[in-house]
Amino acid sequence: MRQREFDTNEILAIAMNLFWQRGYSNTSMKDVVQATGVQPGSLYSAFGDKEKLFQQALRKYTQEFFRASMPRNYPPLTCIQQWFEYLADAMAKDPQQRGCLIINTAMEREAHSPSTIAIIEDRLDEIESFFCQNLNQAKLDGSLPKAHDADVTAKTLLGVVVGMLAVARMRRDGQTLRSIAKGAIALLNA
Question: What confidence score (pLDDT) does residue 190 get?
């Protein structure tokens, strides 16, 4: 068996950025070949078809950008506040206006296989769970009233995140994004 002459992680990073910027439907394997310089046969051998390559790129994004951005080891409401502030700031500073690969993928749902949709559903559930866990912890530590409905608030915050990241894809208006984040945080004090 011949050894690969390229770094699969590097190729995956290039593909991830192409999908993130252009979307799944507007990125062809020919685009990936041109961006990486790797021959089509080698790409297919290493990653499979376009959908499989995309799924691997999505997993890379999940590890390196999505999960890494979620604050941990702070008071629970601070984690939520910091994540919203981080998202608003990161989206406002992105000159390519890529938005979020997870949300972008959810928006072009019809272009994907059921297995890719399942990955996206899992990530949306993960966002909701992040909120729910922090809200429930805030109820335990007295930061929120015991009667606070953490499930409803978590679903609402998920909706705000999806909306904010969709807005970020359309326009890179830092003031608007920060206002959305501020509004989400205000929900915690209502």
Answer: 66
